[in-house]
Amino acid sequence: MAKYRRVLLKLSGEALVGNGVRNAHQIIDYDTLTRIARQVCEVTREEGIELGIVVGGGNIWRGQVAAERGMDRVQADYAGLLATIINALALQDALEQLGVVTRVQTAIAVTSVAEPYIRRRAIRHLEKGRVVIFGAGTGNPYFTTDTAAALRAVEIGAEVLLVAKNRVDGIYDADPRTNPHARKFDRLSYIEMLQLGLRVMDSTAVSLCMENKLPIIVFGLFGPGGEGNIGRAIDGEHIGTLVN
Fold it and tell me: Distance (Å, rounded) from C-alpha 51 to C-alpha 62?
């Protein structure tokens, strides 16, 4: 029995790379993409689950990195927003190959391939059992896809924001991939997360969730045995780190 009925899932662009090395010839690992799509497919088979997804674009482009190398920040961020649309379309295709009915909505108009983001239309899609993939972040430079995920979650009335990570299974006080002594948090308050300066999500996203009392669960996409964790998080199993 699912604990949450309407859910917003945040997937980073880096999650689509899997455990491989990002390069110019493979910005998406299709085995990983298929594994993610299978998890979503399993979730949507449960009656009453309404799922929206915000996908990042870090596997293709990072606006802040480009800006640090001299590119105009606004231009760099817009390029990053377009990268998220590429990932959204790839995820849509992977889901539809499994029979999942989807819609891609974007905050930047690309009407040849996706719908414009319209809140009421997105909610109606969810009510009809369609998975809605939100691309192009908020449509504005200087805002991350973390903030877009928090914003869309609040707008559609999601009960929880799920933040799925690729190689980290929750929030730690240091990077567990480089520090074997890093300590994992089972639970944090919004204020603690902000005060500790933990970079799992940006402060704007956390503040937006705090103001709207939207719980956040940060967890690993795949468990130690390779099993999927999205359904477990929706069912209310204690995995990852709960922020509320």
Answer: 26
Cα angle at 102 between 56 and 225, to 5 degrees?
Answer: 60
- Taking only Cα atoms into account, the Rg of the chain, rounded to an integer number of angstroms, comes to 17
Give the whole-angstrom CA distance, residue 191 versus residue 223.
Answer: 28
User: Rounded to an integer, what distance in angstroms lies between the CA atom of residue 91 and that of residue 74?
Assistant: 26
C-alpha dist (Å) from residue 95 to 86, 105, 132, 179: 14, 15, 11, 36
pTM of the entire predicted model: 0.94
Confidence class of residue 203 from pLDDT cuts 50, 70 and 90? Answer: very high
| Cα 122 from Cα 52, distance rounded (Å) | 9
Q: What is the DSSP letter of 26?
A: B
Under the phi-then-psi rule, with left for phi > 0, alpha for psi from -120 to 50, and beta for the rest, what region is 43?
alpha
pLDDT in tens, 21-36: 555 557 898 999 999 9
H or E stretch including 42? Answer: helix 30-44
> Are 164 and 221 a contacting pair, CB within 8 Å?
yes
Domains and CATH numbers, the chain: 6-243 (3.40.1160.10)
Alpha-carbon gap, residue 98 to 77, rounded angstroms:
32
Q: Are 223 and 164 in contact (CB under 8 A)?
A: no
d(C-alpha 235, C-alpha 185), whole Å: 20
Pull the structure tokens for residue 38: 């299978």
- Exposed/middle/buried for residue 125 (C-beta within 10 Å: 0-12, 13-18, 19+): buried
d(CA 186, CA 170): 8
